[in-house]
Amino acid sequence: MAESSGIVLVLYVVGLIAIMYFLFIRPQKNEEKRTKAMLADLEVGDYIVTTSGFYGSLIAVEEDTVVVEFGNNRNCRISMKKSAIAQVEKNQE
Question: Domain range holding 93?
Fold first, then answer.
């Protein structure tokens, strides 16, 4: 009887680990892949939203940084890391 309860305990632990993998780890890895692909496809003219909620358009794209133009009068340009970009809307031109 003690052997069967040990086997059941091991099955519960394995089941719990499998559930945690499918609920937490796998979706996080998929999100990381999506974010890397989004940042790799950045182009000049794309309209972005930063992680802090600012909207702007890209005017320069470098390896790790981008230059973003903010505001209606187009005179506010800020250099920032690519990782600060939350969403990208492709240029429709």
Answer: 43-93
